[in-house]
């Protein structure tokens, strides 16, 4: 498998980690879209939200718990943050390993939806 996020999980590609437990890892995005831009991923490879199976819902709950803890750690829990999952090419997904973007550190504008 040639998944960049799986390589980060296994340690063959370095990252600036901010959180890690048995099932989840989080690290700074190398192309930040906000002053705080952290990627949160399950260590298990799941390509997209559409590939989540019933047994994976607990794992995604752990991802959300990690987001809460990371927001507290970096000092944005009270001021607010955005947690985004892009699904599929048209949804803006670039790396096909399910992940969430935690964006914060400034007042974020509205999403540009049609």
Automatic annotation (TrEMBL):
Question: Which top-level group of life is the source organism from?
Answer: Bacteria
Q: Which InterPro entries match?
A: Histidine_triad_HIT (IPR001310), HIT-like (IPR011146), HIT-like_sf (IPR036265)
Q: Which residues form a coiled coil?
A: none
Q: Which residues form the active site?
A: 99 (tele-amp-histidine intermediate)
**Residue limits of the HIT domain?**
4-113
**Pfam families attached to this UniProt entry:** HIT (PF01230)
What is the name of this protein?
A: Histidine triad nucleotide-binding protein
């Amino acid at each position: 498998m040639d998944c960049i996020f799986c390589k980060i999980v296994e340690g063959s590609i370095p990252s600036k980690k901010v959180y890690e437990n048995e099932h989840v890892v989080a690290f700074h995005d190398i192309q930040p879209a906000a002053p705080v831009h952290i990627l949160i991923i399950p260590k298990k490879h799941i390509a997209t939200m559409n590939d989540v199976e019933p047994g994976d819902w607990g794992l995604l709950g752990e991802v959300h718990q990690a987001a809460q803890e990371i927001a507290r750690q970096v000092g944005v829990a009270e001021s607010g943050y955005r947690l985004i999952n892009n699904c599929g090419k048209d949804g803006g997904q670039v790396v096909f390993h399910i992940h969430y973007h935690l964006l914060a550190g400034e007042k974020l504008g509205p999403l540009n939806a049609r």
